[in-house]
From TrEMBL:
InterPro entries: DUF3810. The chain crosses the membrane at residues 12-33, 66-84, 96-118. This is DUF3810 domain-containing protein. It comes from Algoriella xinjiangensis. Keywords: Membrane, Transmembrane, Transmembrane helix. It comes from the Bacteria.
Amino acid sequence: MLQINMQKKWSKTVVVLSIFIVQIIIYSILFSFQQVNDFIIHHITFPISGFIARITNAISFPVGELFYLFLAFIGIYFLVRLIKISFKKREKLPQLLTQILIFVNVIYFVYMFAWGIMYKKETLTFDSKEIKIDPKILKTIYCEELNKAIYSRNLIKHSGKKTIQFESTLNDYNAEFFKLQVHLKELNWLKNYRFLEHAHYKLSNISMMQNYLGILGYYNPFSVEANLNRYNTNLKQPSTMFHEYGHQMGFASESEANFLAYYLGSKSKNPEINYAVYYKSVYSLLGAIYKSDPYFVKMELDNMHPNIVADRKAEIDYYAKYEGKTSDTFSELNNQFLKANDQEGTISYSKYVELIYYLHQTKKGTE
């Protein structure tokens, strides 16, 4: 009789495990059809996320971090029970494994419809793989970006501290973003995103830990919140905020969110926002140019504008305090996660440079 009961318990475990495997297979097939993706995103994901955002934005602290804390407690609870049962009451093992698998099934189901599907949808009307970058044109773009960075940098008053201090507040950047997002309509080669009506940044309560993990900010798809590291330098905050809002708008790709921050930031009349995005593009473009002409990059770095050099050194010195094995480990884990979702990974966001290149070429063609 005892053996029959055990078989029934194990059979339940197998059934729940099978449901999880079937989920993975169904989503792989279902999300391979772009029309299905578009329908789910525009009629399920976006409406629900908009509703959740209205609720979470009414609360000042990051609600999603409480949810992650809850998940951590559940995980620890299951782990402790699993260890105890493995040594003492093995007959309860199938029941516990069934509970764990049910929990995993639910979280996976919610995640796939809240965020997983975003990695599968098309956001560009062209194939970025077809972009053939001409190194000469890339240098031209770099020179234009450098001039813009120098111009905006000269408009900013510097207090004399090591890291550059901006006069604008995060609320100023937030208000600026909502005015600027309409400019995305000018890019008719972007699709499958939504404009934000009820979104606001949150300052993360685990910012110090994020420093050691090398995280400037993150988007929580469960609570639809853009969370910023409160200890970012002034130079990092504008583009980080715009980047996380890009995720809220539906751009799952890190490169596309980076490009969104760049494009909208370049449209701003606030020199601090301008400088933040141009500073990033200058060094990103130099990294791309290095592949074809390292001598050019060396000459540019050796002759870089002194204010930008000072800002670069201050940034490196500030974040160097938090570098270590923890940061490297998290970076690699995040890199593998992005690659598993058909993204470029954190090691090289070359698609970001490709999109800046494409923007430049389309502007040139229009002119």
